[in-house]
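Here is this case:
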Amino acid sequence: QVQPVEFGGGLVQAGASLRISCRGSGFAFGRNAMGWFRQAPGKEREYVATIAGSGGSVDYADSVKGRFTISRDNSEKMVYLQMYRLEPEDTAVYYCAQSVKPYTSTRPGDYDYWGQGTQVTVSS
């Protein structure tokens, strides 16, 4: 069964950096696009970043562009989200999602498997 697992969340101060990770699964991981989404209390789940199966294409939400970097290591079946200059508005549960398709997508419906989430809290 394919089940992404996130880890690395925590409590940081505004302006700090943090990297969260996701371990994917499945024999076709290198052909699966991966995405990061987040959900703040009382808000809808929102798109953060996506990376193609090959790692050759990435995309970011406007709110994180220039501050966050998504990357992957297919040999380890890992996906990373490096976050810089964190803001209190970045506080949310961050979810890793795995698609059976190889190309990037900003839409939650294009992802087939979801992790349980990891909490990121940014204090002001």
